[in-house]
Amino acid sequence: MQTRGSTASEDLENWLKSRLKFEGLWGEFRVVSTSCLGVCPQMGITVVIASNGSRGNSPCLIVNPQSDRELIYLYIKQNKK
After folding, report:
1. CB 58 within 8 A of CB 49
2. What are phi and psi of 73, to 5 degrees?
3. What pLDDT does residue 4 have?
């Protein structure tokens, strides 16, 4: 759910940070925002999932920040090194 005055990407960023910290994965994974990359369709945001061991081989996903958040988190958890 989007909070007043925040963007969908900020809400997803905050949700992922909280979830990673709660699960003890913060540090192995980080959540960092950037300026617009200009590749998202309407109602989507771009997410790159990288870890310290990814060596530049990181997936770039265009996701719905609400309905895909659990899928993003599960992907992170399944692919942790």
Report:
1. yes
2. -65, -45
3. 66
